[in-house]
Amino acid sequence: xxxxxxxHSPLRDVAQNPEATARYLADVQRVLLDIGKxxxxxxxxxxxxxxxxxxxxxxxxxARLRAMPVEKALGNVLKNLKNLTDGLEKSAYxxxxxDETVVNxxxxxxxxxxxxxxxxNPPTLQAAPNPSQQGGQGQNSGYGGPASIYDLGKRESA
Length: 158
Description:
The chain has 158 residues and is mainly α. The chain has helices at residues 10-16, 18-52, 62-120. It starts with 9 loop residues before the first helix and ends in a 38-residue tail after the last helix.
């Protein structure tokens, strides 16, 4: 951050910090909105003046027709200014989202690596004991019983 460094750029520091970027873009947006207010006033005053300028022999709509290209040009400038200020705001949000994505990507990769290691080396599972070894017929595993209520025979239902 040496100001004597020929490669040093003040905007480089701003670009590296999302909060500083947001502040800078908000300042630019504020200035542009002030300029926009002045341009709106200029457009209104220009419209009034141009539509009030009549030449001898004009019909009532001739002054309006002559003013339309100027009004359209100023309207386009105002529209582009609005798009510009909207784009600045969107850029600030995208800049913050980028940093969040970078942080989440690093976390996600760590989690995926842990999951990959877990899949490569699964924990050893103990085999379930065979019911015939535990005492034979004493436990009912559910396979030998009736399959439906019609198979109950003389047994009572629950």
